Structure formats: structure tokens, C-alpha cells
């Protein structure tokens, strides 16, 4: 939700086993906090994961078709199958023409999007996956739900206080991050 007072930025790679492990926690957070948490995904395909870049590129094409999360869920769940042939099967399964994926992967916009994601990770000094930023507070690795829940609940309490003190709900997230740190704040 755009008005969600808590934003989780996930920096991950589709071939990273720890990124895949974290997905069940992310799904549970979405179930528990449907209107209070917004989830944003940034790609960091690591160079030693040889299928991660292709999967990231394909997901950017799927995003333009409104099916990013379907691709992401499939790539994480079927991580051991990542390949060109698998990407084609995933496209067919999610009703995107294989030609659309093949052509889209070659377009400079797809690589540019991945490069922008990498630049964000580099700016935050992130060189491994997964990493999560909850309203700017960094959790590294596939952490248990309780670690996420503790930070989310703290951030929701801050948001409630802001609203009680007159901040319009539409401005809560902006107010929360207004004095954003210039370096990652580790939990």
C-alpha cells in the first residue's frame, strides 16, 4: 500500500539460497501486515551465481507485464532449475510470450534497471544477499520472523505517535525517514 508507514527494501538475488530462504518470512510479513508494510525489491545478482542475472533481467520484463512477483516467487521456489529453458517455461506458465521475454532481456532498459539496483546496493555498501532495510534499518541475511516483527512493530509504534501528534497519515513514511541516516543503521 502506498500509505503504508513501513517500507521493507529487499536486496536479493534469485540464485542466492539465503534470499530464497527469506521468502517465507517475507510472505508471512505480508500476511500479518497487509496494510502497514510496503515491499520493494532491488536486484543484486552476484557474479558467482551464473543464472542470477538472466533471472533478474527476465523479472524486469515480467514487471512491465505486471507479473514481477509471480516470476520472483517462481525463481526463488525453483532456484535449482534456473536456466534459459526454465525462464522460457516460467514465461509460458505466467502467460507471457517467450518472444516478449527474449526481446525484453536484450533491451538496454532491462540492464539499466539491474544496474540501478546494483548502484543502490553499492551506495549502501551491500555486497551480499539478502539484505533488508526496514524504514532504513538494516537486517542482513535470512533472519527469523521475530527479528523482522520486532523492527516492524517499533516502526509502527513510531508511526502511531506521529499520527497522534498531527502528522497526516499520507506523510507518515516521509516523516519517518526525513532524517535518514547517511550510513546503514544496523539492527
Kindly state the number of beta strands. 5
Assembly type of the chains comes to single chain
Q: For the terminal residues, how far apart are their CA atoms?
A: 24 Å
Largest sheet: 5 strands, mixed
Series of H and E elements: EHEHHHHHEEHHE
**Uncertain segments:** 181-187
Mean pLDDT, to the nearest integer, reads 90
Strand content: 5-15%
Number of helices: 8
Q: Given the helix and strand composition, which structural class is it? A: alpha/beta
Query: Roughly how many Å is the radius of gyration?
Result: 17 Å
- What's the arrangement of strands in the largest beta sheet? 2-1-3-4-5
Helix fraction?
40-55%
Shape: elongated
Notes on the protein architecture:
The chain has helices at residues 17-32, 52-64, 68-77, 84-93, 98-106, 108-123, 145-164, 172-177, and strands at residues 6-12, 37-43, 131-134, 137-140, 185-186. The chain has 187 residues and is α/β, with parallel strands linked by helices. Strand 3 (131-134) and strand 4 (137-140) form a beta hairpin. The longest helix has 20 residues, at 145-164. The protein is elongated.
Short description:
This protein is α/β, with parallel strands linked by helices and 187 residues long.
Index terms:
187 residues; alpha/beta; 53% helix; 13% strand; elongated
SSE topology sketch:
Blueprint lengths: L5 E7 L4 H16 L4 E7 L8 H13 L3 H10 L6 H10 L4 H9 L1 H16 L7 E4 L2 E4 L4 H20 L7 H6 L7 E2 L1
Parallel strand pairs: 1-2, 4-5
Antiparallel strand pairs: 1-3, 3-4
Helix pairs in contact: 2-3, 2-5, 2-6
Amino acid at each position: 500500500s502506498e500509505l503504508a508507514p513501513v517500507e521493507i527494501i529487499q536486496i536479493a538475488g534469485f540464485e542466492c539460497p539465503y534470499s530464497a530462504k527469506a521468502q517465507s518470512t517475507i510472505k508471512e510479513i505480508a500476511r500479518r501486515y497487509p496494510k502497514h508494510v510496503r515491499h520493494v525489491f532491488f536486484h543484486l545478482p552476484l557474479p558467482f551465481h551464473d543464472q542470477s542475472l538472466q533471472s533478474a533481467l527476465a523479472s524486469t520484463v515480467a514487471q512491465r507485464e505486471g507479473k514481477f512477483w509471480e516470476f520472483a516467487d517462481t525463481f526463488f521456489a525453483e532456484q535449482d532449475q534456473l536456466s534459459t529453458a526454465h525462464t522460457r517455461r516460467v514465461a509460458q506458465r505466467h502467460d507471457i510470450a517467450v518472444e516478449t521475454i527474449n526481446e525484453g532481456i536484450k533491451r538496454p532498459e532491462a540492464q539499466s534497471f539491474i544496474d540501478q539496483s546494483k548502484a543502490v546496493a553499492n551506495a549502501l555498501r551491500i555486497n551480499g544477499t539478502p539484505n533488508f532495510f526496514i524504514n532504513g534499518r538494516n537486517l542482513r541475511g535470512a533472519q527469523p520472523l521475530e527479528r523482522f516483527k520486532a523492527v516492524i512493530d517499533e516502526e509502527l509504534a513510531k508511526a502511531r505517535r506521529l499520527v497522534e501528534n498531527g502528522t497526516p497519515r499520507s506523510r507518515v513514511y516521509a516523516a519517518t525517514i526525513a532524517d535518514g541516516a547517511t550510513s546503514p543503521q544496523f539492527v
